[in-house]
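User: Okay, second chain of the day. Same drill as before: sequence in, structure tokens out.
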Amino acid sequence: MFSVSMYNTETTYSFFINNNSRYSHLVPMVTNWTTNAILKSKNIDANVKHSFSPLPRTEKEALTGQGYSLFWLSFFSIIGWSLIPTSSIVFIVKERETLVK
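Assistant: Same drill. Structure tokens below.
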């Protein structure tokens, strides 16, 4: 979701874009659409083009991503390793119930 709030005078247009989504390219696209709409409303034959490149990840963001990856790796490893003794216990209990050796 995004919203655009515009404040304008006779010569100046300013607007704020509130973005609450994962789409990193939404803000420059909405900026481009808004400025082109302002130019078209004034019958000016011009276009505005924007370019956008996201900033590199910070060290804290990289460490957080590694933490999530390690958590899920350990979680699924624990589940996998818990199945090995469980299968042997099931076999022992089955032998005892049927009295087969």
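The two ends are 66 Å apart (CA to CA).

User: Thanks, on to the next one.
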